[in-house]
């Protein structure tokens, strides 16, 4: 596995990989876990070469968020990627991604407006901008993202289509621990006690999704799920919404696939999760 930190050698290395076949990109912020490894495994199914980027993108963190403390484990990450058969690790410095004078923002409207877009102003501009840059730097044939960040996936799909990138964006199903909790680099912030309480999130989502699929009233199912999450010890629920699975608009038509999405805070740690809700009727 090659590890590259500068743009000129990246371009040369990518040209050599491309000469041998298709290239997949898995963008990450590091602190890799089994969720990332599932993205890489899926990438290998679709492409001859897998490129992984590790870049803790400052522009997607708001003031007071965890940019400074975000877990960074470059050596362990690099070993995991080598073992997984990744061809190239792209690990740019912040000054390479955002050189002096950088003045461009990629802003997606619509799908960014609610939920994390409302709770974290500027977050999706940061994500769309850095992913556009990574797409232009690596120019992959396909790119893979986890469904765990479902709204992010919708934003990136929109951006990739709108900007005619020609890159196929593939979403990969959320990886979970045996107790149902979605894998996330931010789970590292949880105490043992809060990690147990966190089980309430997928459990409440699962029950609500099942109730709605069976024809139950979405508002009632959501109220029930909110109460269960609060009872478990979460101090705040940023949102718990049923949305159209593709457009993320509220009040999805019952005959369309929907998604139930949640963000909630436990002892200051913000966890997100989501589940599909099949069309009803
Ligand atoms: O999901 C992430 O890890 C990040 O938001 C991404 C897509 C790598 C952009 O920084």
* Straight-line distance between termini: 50 Å
Number of domains: 2
- What is the general shape? globular
Q: Helical residue percent? A: 25-40%
Strand order of the largest sheet: 1-4-3-2-5-6
Which structural class do the helices and strands define?
Answer: alpha/beta
Poorly predicted runs are: none
CATH fold-level topology of the largest domain: Rossmann fold
Describe this protein's structure.
By secondary structure, the chain is an alpha/beta fold. The chain has two domains: 2-172, Rossmann fold (3-Layer(aba) Sandwich), CATH 3.40.50; 190-276, Pantoate-beta-alanine ligase, C-terminal domain (Pantoate--beta-alanine Ligase, Chain: A,domain 2, 2-Layer Sandwich), CATH 3.30.1300. The chain contains ten helices and nine strands. It has helices at residues 7-20, 34-46, 74-83, 94-97, 116-119, 123-138, 150-162, 192-197, 200-213, 218-232; strands at 2-4, 23-28, 49-54, 88-90, 142-146, 168-172, 236-244, 258-266, 269-277. The strands form two sheets. The chain has a six-stranded parallel beta sheet, sandwiched between helices. Strands 7-8-9 form a three-stranded antiparallel beta sheet, with helices on one face. β5 (142-146), α7 (150-162) and β6 form a beta-alpha-beta unit. α6 (123-138) crosses α7. The longest helix has 16 residues, at 123-138. The protein is globular. The mean pLDDT is 97.
Short description:
The protein is α/β, with parallel strands linked by helices. The chain is 39% helix and 20% strand.
């Amino acid at each position: 596995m090659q590890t590259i930190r500068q743009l000129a050698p990246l371009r040369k290395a990518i040209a050599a990989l491309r000469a041998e076949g298709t290239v997949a990109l898995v963008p990450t912020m590091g602190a890799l876990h089994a969720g990332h490894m599932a993205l890489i495994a899926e990438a290998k199914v679709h492409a001859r070469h897998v490129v992984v980027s590790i870049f803790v993108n400052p522009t997607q963190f708001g003031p007071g968020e965890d940019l400074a403390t975000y877990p960074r484990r470059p050596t362990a990450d690099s070993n995991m990627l080598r073992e997984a058969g990744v061809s190239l690790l792209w690990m740019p410095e912040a000054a390479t991604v955002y050189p002096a004078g950088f003045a461009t923002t990629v802003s997606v409207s619509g799908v960014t407006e609610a939920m994390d877009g409302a709770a974290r102003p500027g977050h999706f501009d940061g994500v769309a901008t850095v992913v556009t840059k990574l797409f232009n730097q690596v120019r992959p044939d396909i790119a893979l993202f986890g469904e765990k960040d479902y709204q992010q996936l919708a934003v990136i799909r929109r951006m990739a289509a709108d900007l005619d990138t020609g890159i196929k964006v593939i979403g990969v199903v959320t990886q979970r621990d045996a107790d149902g909790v979605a894998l996330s680099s931010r789970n590292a912030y949880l105490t043992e006690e809060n990690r147990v309480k966190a089980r309430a999130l997928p459990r409440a989502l699962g029950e609500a999704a099942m109730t709605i699929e069976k024809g139950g009233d979405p508002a009632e199912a959501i109220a029930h799920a909110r109460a269960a999450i609060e009872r478990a010890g979460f101090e705040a629920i940023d949102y718990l919404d049923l949305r159209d699975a593709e457009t993320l608009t509220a009040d999805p038509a019952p005959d369309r696939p929907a998604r139930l999405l949640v963000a909630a805070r436990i002892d200051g740690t913000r966890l997100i999760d989501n589940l599909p809700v099949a069309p009803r009727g």
